[in-house]
Specification:
GO terms for molecular function: alpha-(1->6)-fucosyltransferase activity. It contains 17 helices and eleven strands. A four-stranded antiparallel beta sheet has the order 2-1-3-4, covered by helices on one side. A four-stranded parallel beta sheet has the order 10-9-8-11, sandwiched between helices. It has helices at about 55-75, 100-105, 150-165, 185, 220-225, 225-230, 245-255, 260-280, 315-330, 340-345, 355-360, 380-385, 410-415, 425-430, 440-460, 470-480, 485-490; strands spanning about 5, 15, 25-30, 40-45, 140, 170-175, 210-215, 290-295, 350-355, 370, 465. With about 500 residues, it is an alpha/beta fold. It folds into two domains: about 5-255, no CATH class; about 260-385 and about 400-490, 3-Layer(aba) Sandwich (Rossmann fold).
């Protein structure tokens, strides 16, 4: 190697330096071989912490475009205006993958086999794979995100798995800095490849044609942005039907990955079977009832409808829609065109909501909860259920009740487990990268498990689901039900 260049903080200036001054931070670099030909790659010091921070991953993708344009100019000897929008599978001939650059002596690589300790990825069977080959191509999904919600991460995870399958990449998951804790607290480990993941410094967020790809919320606009939609949408179709190939990609991920941890999975199966049994009528020639799932999202998610942009869709809209679906199903369903009252009475409405007060509302106080395993209660309900001391004198100090007021709010999530005297600014502008306390993690796990079991029961038991498309949970339920049931028969 005769020279190396890399992006400075300004993002568009490059320094040419000697080999001994290879940067000690992650960055795209311009490398020049002995023949004077310029290429570019991404240099991540082999001993650098994995995963990189979200900001570092995002910066690498932004700087890659600048560096790639500079190398292209060096080859053409003139400055050209470069297109900002390439085809999703555009291959930059000037890019050199990390392992290839190391093989040519253009990057130093790992000095000795055991010089760097790579923490295990989720599902990686380290003991069995020490002597196995490194996977040819991989996609590693990093769960770390500053988004408090679980829904977007789940949808990205599934889509990333489906994409990996399409591209022939082996799939891994990293949960080392996930706000919810360990992946296996919630799910069974993902299918384990028979090969082992590459050294972590070979895993890159960009370009997409890198052998070993990292996907995370920080790089979602690069992996699942405009060029992804342009490539995978069905241009011959209109509206939601354009999205079917991407929907099916997420469905592949759901089928492979959505297997809850043992106890929760067994509970969901039992609960769904209960609803099925309640709605099944004898004899065989008598049509059975149906299960209508209702998902109500409050908290910090507002509806798309303009008239409700500062509030929520009234609960009567949900309950009236459920009754309308039952009337439509059974009003003329008998052979003589009559109303099948037996089947309609046997039908069940099953409710899931992030807002505890919805369960006690006039519209839904008599319907079944999707799951009873973990209940998120409002502070008023908890205080009402707590025995009040009636003896005079000093009272024993008890921690403030943790209430789930009005649904899921990001600020409330980040403040779980913090002292009651936490300043308001710390709740409104939380430091999301801090390692959670043991108590905070316990509460986050309960919130996450409740959300997942709610969705799992609705997705498994429901014949129809009523929800608002502004909610990610609604889109997740559509994937769970499948295209035919969720879209074609809606």
């Amino acid at each position: 190697m005769t020279a190396v260049g890399w992006a400075t903080d300004s993002g568009n200036q490059y320094e040419m330096v000697g080999e001994s001054e290879l940067p000690d931070f992650p960055t795209p670099v311009i490398i020049t071989d002995k023949r004077g030909r310029s290429k570019w790659t991404v240099s991540i010091p082999p001993n650098h912490e994995f995963p990189l921070t979200p900001t570092q991953y995002a910066d690498i993708c932004s700087q890659n475009m600048e560096v790639a344009a500079t190398v292209a100019d060096l080859h053409s000897h003139v400055h050209r205006e470069h297109t900002a929008h390439y085809d999703y599978y555009h291959v930059d001939q000037n890019f050199m993958d990390v392992a290839e650059a190391e093989a040519h002596g253009l990057l130093p690589g790992i000095k000795t086999k055991n010089s760097v300790k790579d923490d295990s990825l989720v599902g990686e069977k380290k003991g069995d794979l020490i002597d196995s080959d490194v996977c040819d191509k991989t996609l590693t999904f990093v769960l770390e995100t500053s988004d408090a919600g679980l829904g977007k991460t789940l949808m990205m995870l599934w889509t990333a798995f489906g994409l990996a399958q399409k591209e022939g990449r082996h799939f891994f998951v990293d949960d080392s800095r996930w706000a919810y804790g360990k992946y296996t607290t919630f799910f069974q480990p993902p299918p384990a490849p028979k090969c082992r993941p590459p050294p972590r410094h070979e895993m890159l967020p960009c370009p997409h044609h890198a052998r070993h790809l990292v996907v995370s919320a920080a790089t979602v606009t690069h992996t699942f942005g405009g060029s992804f939609n342009d490539y995978f949408e069905d241009a011959r179709k209109m509206e939601v039907y354009r999205q079917k190939p991407i929907f099916e990609m997420a469905r592949v991920g759901y089928t492979a990955l959505f297997h809850l941890s043992d106890g929760d999975d067994e509970y969901v199966d039992r609960r769904a079977a209960e609803f099925r049994a309640k709605t099944t009528l004898d004899p065989v020639d008598q049509e059975s009832g149906i299960v209508i799932g209702v998902h109500v999202r409050h908290g910090d998610r507002r509806p798309f409808e303009f008239q409700y942009k500062d509030s929520y869709i009234p609960l009567t809209v949900y309950s009236d829609t459920a009754r309308m679906l039952l009337d439509k199903k059974y009003n003329h369903s008998l052979p003589n065109g009559g109303h099948d009252a037996l089947a309609q009475m046997a039908s069940a409405i099953v409710l899931a909501s992030d807002d505890p007060d919805v369960y006690d509302s006039d519209e839904f106080k008599d319907v079944s909860r999707a799951q009873e395993q973990i209940r998120l209660a409002s502070k008023n309900a908890l205080e009402a259920a707590t025995p009040q001391p009636n003896t005079p004198g000093p009272r024993k100090f008890v921690d403030d009740t943790v209430g789930w007021e009005g649904g899921f709010f990001a600020g409330m999530f980040w403040s779980l487990g913090k002292p009651s005297g936490t300043p308001k600014t710390a709740v409104e502008n939380p430091e999301t990268a801090l390692t959670p306390t043991t108590e905070a993690l316990r509460l986050r796990e309960l919130v996450g498990r409740a959300y997942l079991m709610d969705l799992a029961v609705l997705g498994k038991a429901s014949d129809k689901i009523i929800c608002t498309v502004s909610s990610t949970g609604c889109r997740i339920l559509a994937v769970m039900m499948g295209w035919e049931k969720a879209i074609d028969q809606a």
